[in-house]
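quick q for whoever's on today - can somebody do inverse folding on this one?? i tried earlier but teh output was garbage lol. tokens:
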């Protein structure tokens, strides 16, 4: 089925597998046209919005129209460079979860603001290679797990409230995995995971029992010792600063991620990637 707002073929073509097109119509009509194209296309459709407000509106329209079709949003950080503010944990959670899901997403729509599309990102292999698993019955060294979570960007806090938080109280490990809808409570018996349950972050009451959880990185860059060293060296090579008087360099030396560090993401990697490297090859 064709739509009057949508070209019969995606133009102009780029190579054999990708294409882009524009829809000079009102937002609801554009959403309908995108849904029709996504249903007809055997792959992912990338919908680029002019800004965050337009992306949120398009996401809402698509979800109301695209029944049964996955709709993902890769949001903007909603911060400015050098503002010394980090994005909200919910935004980081949504972004990391989207990057993890994208390579295997065979159908659906990904909504992204145009400015976000231009950002340099962690390479796909880093996202895929830094997923942690916790299962009921497995052996768990609590001290080693704390170090592993912190290296993955999780924050050690007194009480878990946001994605990326974790807390340790005796034999209990509470954590809110990135990309998850709710936090989980892991109870240990000696050095074995005895139970896994979701819990309400407001009341702190345990709820549903589960068998396993998947832990995505809590940040879009690594915080292990080698990566922090690489970032420090890159900063000192790029900027004319005294390392002893630079709070950013000193924080990274201690393995601490200061506010606003996200804009220095390329310094943590040998190479970065664009969003196009994360989507399947047949995406439109």
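ok took a stab at it. sequence:
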């Amino acid at each position: 089925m064709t739509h009057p707002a949508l070209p019969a073929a995606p133009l102009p073509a780029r190579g054999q597998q990708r294409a882009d097109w524009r829809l000079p119509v009102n937002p609801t009509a554009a959403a309908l046209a995108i849904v029709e194209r996504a249903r007809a296309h055997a792959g992912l459709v990338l919908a680029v919005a002019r800004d965050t407000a337009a992306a949120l509106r398009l996401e809402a329209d698509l979800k109301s129209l695209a029944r049964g079709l996955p709709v993902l949003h890769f949001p903007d950080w909603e911060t400015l460079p050098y503002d010394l503010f980090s994005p909200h944990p919910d935004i980081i959670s949504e972004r990391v979860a989207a990057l993890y899901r994208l390579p295997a997403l065979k159908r659906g729509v990904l909504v992204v603001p145009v400015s976000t599309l231009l950002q340099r990102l962690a390479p796909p292999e880093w996202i895929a290679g830094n997923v942690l698993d916790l299962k009921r019955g497995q052996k768990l060294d609590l001290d080693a797990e704390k170090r592993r979570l912190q290296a993955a960007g999780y924050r050690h806090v007194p009480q878990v409230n946001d994605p990326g938080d974790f807390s340790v109280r005796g034999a209990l490990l509470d954590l809110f995995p990135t990309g998850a809808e709710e936090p989980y409570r892991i109870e240990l018996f000696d050095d074995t995971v005895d139970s896994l349950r979701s819990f309400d972050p407001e009341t702190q009451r345990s709820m549903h029992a589960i068998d396993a959880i998947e832990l995505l990185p809590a940040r879009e860059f690594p915080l292990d010792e080698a990566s922090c060293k690489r970032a420090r060296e890159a900063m000192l090579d790029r900027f004319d600063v005294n390392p002893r008087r630079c709070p950013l360099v000193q924080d990274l030396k201690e393995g601490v991620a200061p506010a606003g560090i996200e804009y220095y993401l390329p310094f943590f990697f040998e190479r970065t990637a664009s969003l196009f490297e994360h989507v399947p090859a047949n995406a439109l």
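fwiw DSSP finds eight helices and 13 strands in the chain. also Residues 231 and 267 are 5 Å apart (CA to CA). so keep that in mind when u check it
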